[in-house]
Design goal:
globular, alpha/beta, 35% helix, two-stranded antiparallel ribbon, binds zinc ion, Rossmann fold, single chain, 9 helices, 228 residues
Length: 228
């Protein structure tokens, strides 16, 4: 009752369509929520995200929460998360991810949950890593160890947006492992907001595997399918 009154006095808006949220709705209205295309990847059965990364790095399994396409609302939501400081979206996506992982997943135990790091200059410019609240929330819900310092980005580059896939794939590894802990046989989940070519995930994974034979799992919020 009290929340309903608050919604009338101070209306909350949907992050996608900017329409008013009604009681029970958080971050997205029900209509926009239904426009998100859940992949139903679950770390059990081989999926197209796995197949797109084969041969690039020695990971165990990969997964993503939603399919990403240029016309869908996920593109706008990830842009808000990344550039507009709408970090509540990270929490929203983490809640959704945890619900799926708890209900239907072959990945149940993770020793270190590691976000793809930003270079310090980019983090300073943006003010935050867009993956921080997503990973923090997910690690809390899953009781996994959040390890944002494990990897470090040592090369600063401008946005990859305008670079070709081939160009990105062959660049030197911009990530370094920053730990004295032995990660042999440890299960490490690397998290990014979007998998397109897989080059960022590949670099992060290889930065770890070059030092330790870890069990690498990959997770992103969005996955750009080659078939959409
Ligand atoms: Zn909406």
């Amino acid at each position: 009752m009290f929340k309903s009154i608050i919604d009338i006095v101070i209306p909350r808006c949907c992050n996608a369509c900017h329409g008013h949220l009604t009681f029970g709705e958080k971050v997205l209205c029900t209509s926009c929520r239904h426009q998100l295309s859940v992949t139903q990847f679950n770390y059990c059965i081989e999926n197209e995200c796995d197949r797109s990364l084969y041969g690039k790095t020695s990971f165990v399994k990969a997964s993503a929460l939603f399919y990403f396409d240029q016309a869908g609302i996920l593109k706008a939501l990830l842009h808000q998360l990344k550039y507009r400081d709408q970090q509540q979206l990270g929490v929203f996506f983490a809640n959704w991810t945890a619900a799926i992982l708890k209900q239907d997943s072959c990945l149940t135990a993770v020793d270190y949950l590691v976000p793809v790091p930003l270079h310090w200059r980019k983090k300073h410019q943006r003010g935050y890593n867009q993956l921080h609240l997503f990973c923090k929330r997910l690690s809390k819900l899953m009781n996994w160890n959040y390890a944002p310092q494990l990897l470090k980005r040592v090369n600063y580059r401008d946005s990859q947006t305008h670079k070709s896939r081939i160009h990105r794939s062959f660049e030197n590894n911009p990530f370094e492992l920053k730990t004295t802990v032995d990660l042999s046989d440890q299960t490490i989940l690397i998290v990014d907001d979007l998998i397109t070519t897989g080059s960022t995930m590949t670099h992060c994974s290889n930065a770890i595997l070059n030092r330790y034979p870890s069990k690498i799992y990959l997770l992103s919020i969005g996955y750009r399918s080659r078939f959409v």
